[in-house]
Amino acid sequence: MFKRLLSSLLLLCLVLTATVPAYADTPRPITPLDYDTLPDPPAGQHHFLLTCVDSWAGTADKMSNTDGNILVTMDTAARRLIFTTFTREMLIQRPDGDIGRFTYIAKNYGVEAMCRILSTHFGVKVEKYIVFNMDNVQDIIDAMGGVYITVTDAEADYLNRYRISRDSTTPSMGKGGTYLFGGHAAVIYMRIRKVGSEGDNGRMRRMRTVLSTLAQKYADVDLGTAMDLLTSVRGSIVQTNMSLQDMMQALNYAFELRGVTPEGLQMPPTEAMEDITYAGMMTRQVDFE
Fold this sequence. Notes:
Radius of gyration: 22 Å
Structural class: alpha+beta
Number of strands: 11
Shape: globular
Helix content: 25-40%
Oligomer: single chain
């Protein structure tokens, strides 16, 4: 009797191990939009992808996985500035037709493929991009005089225990509060995922917070300072398909939007993040209108 029961249990275990992983590992189908039939952005609406590789010294010849992906939308017609973050873990249809994670696309297929995937999965044509490494971002934030960030007690405890030096914020960080972060500390702050229950959502939110704060800090910037900042950005790039003329035009759009309060979006939305197969449900047109 005992042997028969044990045999039944073993058989049940074999059935479960044979079927459950196959079910869990099979993503839902993803049907991207047709790139060639995507409409151009409305008049006055301009999209620029800023992405950061998961490396302090990544280069165009040795591209790493992308860790921070932010679509900057400057709408001079509607006077809107929008920062849309895309989680690195979202499932997408790769150029080879298989389903994979977004973080690997630039490394394995190139940044142009990454832009095309965003376009066909979210219905917003993305053509211009700039790729940074973490050292680039650090240098740009330092060139902008740092950034004021308000942290919680839990974030302050994590930063103090984990990575940043005592002199990397002004004043030296103790508990939660508002501090002036230098470039290195700001990068570490933006990479936090293990504080609270937000996970990668929290990392995306912190990236939007830093960008929005810097945008508001430079709301009244003069042309000379803006040109100095553009020079700093151009000198801290891993890869881009934007010419100097493109960057000057983007700077002109930014000037037109000075004083506009930045908005933040996350894709996929927070409510979809608990479903590992959410990308199969997320082929849609993002509404920036």
